Design the sequence.
């Protein structure tokens, strides 16, 4: 199976809120484990460049997982992801997530 690429976009109106979420992503990248081992293949996050095409989404994240099963674990069981959601929930206005199997 090809890697699963996950794109998550946030609308976070407050710069301090964006900074808190980005800091939590840094923690997540170091602490997310499955069966005691790191399982996120790669992660990238940053403030989106201002552009009318982003429709107000101002924080962009890309995570890569080895399998759909790993991504589903991330969504339902990963303690590091639960901590991230707890930080993001009170500061975000909207979140958009999509994922796909990388064919390249």
Sequence:
């Amino acid at each position: 199976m090809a890697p699963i690429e996950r794109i998550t976009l946030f609308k976070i109106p407050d710069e301090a809120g964006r900074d808190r979420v980005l800091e939590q992503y840094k923690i997540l990248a170091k602490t997310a484990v499955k069966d005691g081992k790191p399982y996120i293949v790669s992660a990238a996050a940053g403030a989106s460049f201002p552009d009318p095409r982003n429709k107000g989404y101002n924080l962009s994240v890309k995570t890569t997982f080895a399998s759909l099963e790993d991504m589903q674990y991330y969504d339902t069981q990963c303690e590091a992801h639960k901590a991230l959601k707890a930080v993001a929930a009170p500061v975000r206005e909207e979140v958009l997530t999509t994922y796909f199997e990388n064919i390249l």
Q: What stands out?
A: The first helix runs from residue 15 to 31. The first strand starts at residue 4 and ends at 11. Residues 4-101 form a domain with the Alpha-Beta Plaits fold (CATH 3.30.70.100).
